[in-house]
Amino acid sequence: MKKTIKNLLLACLILITGQIHAQEIALQLYSLRNEMREDVKGSHQLIADWGIKYIEGGGTYGMDQDEYKKFITGLGLSVIAVGADFKQLQENPQAIIDNAKAYGAKYATCFWIPHTNGEFSIKETKEAIEVFNKAGKILKEAGITLCYHPHGYEFKPHGNGTLFDELLKNAKNYDFNMDVFWVQMGGGDPLAIMKKYPKKFPLLHLKDRAIGTPGSSDGRGDVESNVILGTGDVDIHGLIKQAQKVGTKYLIIEDESSRSVQQIPQSVAYIKKVMAEK
Q1: Any residues with CB less than 8 A from the CB of 185 and at least 6 apart, and which?
Q2: Overall fold of domain 22-276
């Protein structure tokens, strides 16, 4: 009898632990940049209405920070990641830490490595690795994980791989927030990369691409090619299943199209459907 009770308690513990570490759906607030210009509070209400509890942001949309925090808390929203400007990482990483801590966010994402358009090379790659590792160590000591968000220009061939492989292989004090759309735009295979480096992606930007969209190697493209998750040519299904397998913390929806308000709830439903599959 005691053994049976012990086994039941162990099963419950495993179930609870699994729920704690389960993937959560989040939204990158840039998805609603146009709507925010017209109605900040109404746009945040939409997010809550979609059943999303976690957001990636860091700004205050014209409000005092304490006022903004109180407002989003009232809607049941939490900031899980803030932005980390490259220059700020070089010169003042403490400001990034302070912003993240103000929200209780555990992640800070750098979205761009400065370079002349079309000329991203091993030089800029090595410089970025140095900046990310140095600042990443400072952030890590403060309880914040620095992540880099690729934009497609990092996929130029280098050695036996690409410049992105160099960023991955040399990441000692930083991780990645992989935007699967931009990886594919640049010629990379997001699922293959995730399988090759399974412990490097605590965050994912899930963004699908209309079938037939031409690639881009400069980090630029038509935002209207963003489609509902699961309807484009990015293997979103495979990426969600891999995220579940490796323990990615947050699946962050980013939809830059003019149809984001219509598409986001459908993308949320798709993620939930795939996550529920056995």
Answers
A1: 152, 209, 213, 215, 216, 221
A2: TIM Barrel (3.20.20)
